[in-house]
Amino acid sequence: MPTKIEKDAITGTETTGHEWDGIKELNTPLPKWWLYTFYATIVFAVIYVILYPAIPLGGGEYTKGVLGFSQRAVLENEMAELHSERSVYMDRFIAASMEEIIEDAELQNYAMAGGRVAFADNCVPCHGAGGAGGPGYPSLADDDWLWGGTLEDIYTTLQNGVRWADNEETRTSQMPAFAVDEILNAGQINDVAEYVLSLSNSASDAQAAERGAVVFAENCAVCHGESGEGMRELGAPKLNDSIWLFGGDKETIVETISKSRGGVMPAWGGRLDDVTLKQLTIYVHSLGGGE
Ligand code: HEC
Ligand code: HEC
Fold it and tell me: Which of 24, 194, 251, 257 could potentially form a cystine with 208 if both were Cys, beta carbons 3.0 to 4.6 Å apart?
């Protein structure tokens, strides 16, 4: 350490007293703004350490700070608040019938939001985006229902599935495979297919259709109705409209009659909880064809 403070002749700044080959180091003071900011951070750090958890002590221990603050506790409080807010909703949702839910804007929003997500997760692979359907998978967005389009009907279909072997209450019916089971011969199948075409005003051979009408009355009307109006108790589709589950061209109709189809939908009752089933029902009901 130099004993006497020396000033640099040119700048007038004190030197540190260090000298290398005649060059002396200036002891330039730090800028004031920098220095005060630095002091402020020290004061802040000291106060912080006193008030808040700060220094790890090893073994999971740490200085707790006089305020007793804990992020974990804050999170727990927030979660508890959220749960209690939600459970008010949930309790109301669970207690309400589906009819009541669609009357109540708040509950309906809740149902639609949940239903939309559950639909995308579980139903879109078969029923398509927005329930548009496809060959073998009914559209859920139109007025044509196999098993019924009321809230009750949709809920029952969802809960128990269609022809789902693991569920005793599943919706079920089976159209006979008229060729495979040798109930009708090829000529009769051709005729009745022509008659089915005529029901929906598609181009058909009038004579064959006339013969087919007799075959239809004897073999098909029990399920599809006298004039092809369909029957929901049996999930038998309407044949007198232009909406087709499997296809309305002659070839597809002949194949349906010959081999029958037997579409299967899983029962969702055991897989999804009741709140989700209600949400899905309300969502599907809202897609366009709800009754
Ligand atoms: C594995 C494919 C598959 C999945 C996944 C599926 N479905 Fe289906 N669903 C079907 C088939 C096939 C039918 C028609 C069965 C028949 O021929 O009657 C059907 C019928 C329905 C019906 C009756 C339609 C009517 O006209 O009466 C509703 C409602 C329905 N599904 C809703 C849903 C919902 C909601 C989901 C998701 C939770 C879902 N489905 C998932 C295959 C599926
Ligand atoms: C036991 C009841 C039952 C009888 C009898 C029956 N069907 Fe069906 N039919 C159904 C059901 C149920 C479906 C559709 C669901 C499935 O199989 O997936 C169907 C589907 C069809 C379809 C397909 C419709 C579409 O939208 O793609 C045609 C066509 C049809 N039947 C014609 C006939 C004809 C013709 C006869 C008589 C020769 C007949 N059915 C007899 C129950 C029956």
Answer: 194
Return the best residue to mutate from 224, 232, 260, 264 for the ligand 2 pocket (most ligand atoms within 8 A of CB). Answer: 224
pTM exceeds 0.90, yes or no: no
Q: Domains of the chain: which residue ranges? A: 88-169+265-286, 186-259
Third-level CATH fold of 88-169+265-286: Cytochrome Bc1 Complex; Chain D, domain 2 (1.10.760)
Q: Is the CB of 172 under 6 A from ligand 2?
A: no
Instruction: Give pLDDT tens digits along the chain (291 positions).
Output: 556 778 888 888 888 888 899 888 898 889 999 999 999 999 999 999 999 999 999 888 888 889 888 888 999 999 998 888 777 778 889 999 999 999 999 899 999 999 999 999 999 999 999 999 999 999 999 989 999 999 999 999 999 999 999 999 999 999 999 999 999 999 999 999 999 999 998 989 999 999 999 999 999 999 999 999 999 999 999 999 999 999 999 999 999 999 999 999 999 998 999 999 999 999 999 997 788
Reported as type and span, the H/E element at residue 22 is: none
